[in-house]
Specification:
Length: 255
């Protein structure tokens, strides 16, 4: 069975989204009709575009997990598998306990791969941003050794310690970041609003200005003319760069 994402209309005409497991699209549509829903679209959760350019754009926006969410999922799997529950049943239980539809869809997709005969580590590779290569390699080692529950428990401990370290680093960077933002804001304000008023005074005096003063005036003109475009461009480039670094292949080449 595979996992499918659906969009349907209920009896009140409102859209509903969700994930269902079935043998095919036709069965999903029938299940939705049995529930009194009118299916609008049904798509496999793991469908991947074949063209490299489209695949790259798709990977930029594929669902990911925070360190906290990954630690929680790993801890839940470790507990359920340690209680002698089969892997596919543990994945199903985690998907049902999740309050986020993206995590539910992710777990059902991984479960579908496991039911197809793939190992848990290979199934997690469907979401390389959510489960990094180190995480998957450790899971594979646990499957090979026959101690998957213990390995998952250690992975959860590692993820939690990683989360604590990241929180401490972020807390330490808050003050320098605030100072940096305030410095940029003050500098932009001076160049954008204060310097133009001073330029009018210099223009009336008809005196030759030093090269440093001329440079400041040109910088002010540049900020006034293109400051907003630079800010928007910086935000877009930063966002895309962050998404690219979240992709394992790109991150490996960068480092």
């Amino acid at each position: 069975m595979a996992a499918f994402e659906y969009l349907a209309l209920n009896a009140r005409g409102r859209e509903e989204k969700g994930v269902l497991e079935a043998d095919g699209v036709r069965q999903v549509r029938q299940l939705l009709r049995d529930r009194g829903l009118t299916p609008l679209s049904v798509n496999p959760t793991s469908r991947i575009e074949k063209r490299s350019g489209v695949a790259l754009i798709r990977n930029l926006f594929r669902p990911s997990l925070s360190v906290t969410e990954r630690a929680l999922i790993t801890r839940q799997l470790a507990t359920l598998i340690g209680a002698a529950l089969p892997v596919e049943e543990a994945l199903l239980a985690v998907s049902r306990q999740s309050e986020k539809s993206t995590i539910e869809s992710m777990m059902l997709t991984v479960r579908a791969k496991v039911l197809e005969g793939f190992s848990l580590a290979n199934s997690l590779a469907e979401y390389p941003k959510a489960f990094p290569s180190l995480h998957r390699a450790t899971v594979a080692a646990g499957e090979t050794s026959g101690h998957l529950d213990l390995v998952l428990s250690r992975l959860a401990d590692f993820s939690e310690s990683q989360q604590e370290s990241a929180a401490r680093v972020k807390q330490a960077l808050i003050y320098p970041l605030i100072l940096f933002i305030l410095t940029i804001a003050i500098l932009a304000g001076l160049l954008g609003y204060v310097v133009p008023d001073i330029v009018e005074v210099f223009a009336e005096s008809d005196q030759e200005l030093p090269w440093l003063t001329t440079g400041v005036i040109k910088a002010s003109d540049f900020v006034v003319a293109y400051g907003l475009l630079i800010l928007v461009g910086f935000i877009i480039v930063s966002f895309l760069f962050q998404r690219l670094l979240a992709m394992p292949d790109v991150r490996l080449r960068w480092h």
